[in-house]
Design goal:
The protein is α/β, with parallel strands linked by helices. The chain is 41% helix and 21% strand. It has two domains: 5-139, Rossmann fold (3-Layer(aba) Sandwich), CATH 3.40.50.300; 145-395, no CATH class.
Amino acid sequence: MIVRPHYLDLLKTYRDVPLVKILAGIRRCGKSTILEMLQNDLLKSGVPADRIINMRYTSEDFDDGMTDKDMYNGIKEKMTKGGRYYLLLDEVQEISNWEKAVNSLLENADTDIYVTGSNSKLMSSEISTYLTGRYISIPMFTLSFAEYMEFKKASGRTPKELLTEYIRMGGFPIVALSNFDEDAAYQIVEGIYNSVITSDIIKRHNIANFDLFNRVVKYVIENVGKTFSANAIVKFLKSEGRSLSVESVYNYLEWLEKAFVIYRCQRYDLQGKSVLKTQEKFYLADASLKYCMMGFNPKSVAAMLENIVYFELRRKGYKVYIGKNETKEIDFVAVRRDERIYVQVCRNLPEESDREVTNLLEIKDHYPKYVVTLDELAAGNINGVKIVHLADFLLAGDY
């Protein structure tokens, strides 16, 4: 098992803090494995094995009709002695009202509770009032480039070779753990995508017109890294002779978001210092989700570099926005407490244009500014704007 210290360290920070620790992210991003790592770490730190209760709530493991009471009683039965128990509860979203059971265990027993899940029932907007103010949500993503390199340590390949592979193959742990060729890797990712769509969206929301839903998904995937609106999707579908209401498009986007397939990135007006409600961008939970559906296309690499940088900033704890500076756009404004950085992403620095740098120089403050590129020869500092290779940016401990 390859340890992912970023998440393990986060969970250690909150160990024995009286809050429910919730790890939420797309299916197969490694949540169950993190719980295994946590269990090993607890044992190493001297917690007796009979003090750790590990439960997995997938439909294969339990009856479909399991209630929160069944869940509560099932765990309580295992707590045979006094003293603290560590509860590691995997895929809890399968149990309706799971928060009730977890809240009762938090209140009525000496417990330290960790839960994972892969759909909207684990998002703060849907966690019921039972747990308000009593949980910490830890978003979980597919592998970072640093983690991918760790997974591939034995391959003997250079960081540059691995970066090319990471851009093409994405960061699902199941793909990184093996040496699949591209076709096999995309088949596996397509299987993950289909299970998410079937289990977390189609069944849950009773989507009748699967073909139309799929066309909306395809539109979003084709437009990763571009600002668009629900109206634009409706117009596009109309041009194809299909009809869908703006409200339905909003629903589809929201459901994809709640299944952690796409992530919404809002625009931030640097002049008015406010978050704008229109012309958002969406990024895919993993670059491979695009390629498994549309094939790898070198022309789409620029947009997927943006996708990769977006998630690296999220992993490092930044809130990420698209910057609007009067008529100019900044790819990312990343904010973390009182820190802020500005990032432009491009495949190569164009020789005939300094647009990437100029847009950053027009921001009149002293926060760090970066242009992140795949350009091998581009490096250095232009009037305070740092030009950084993508690999160096992804592997930096901090900015």
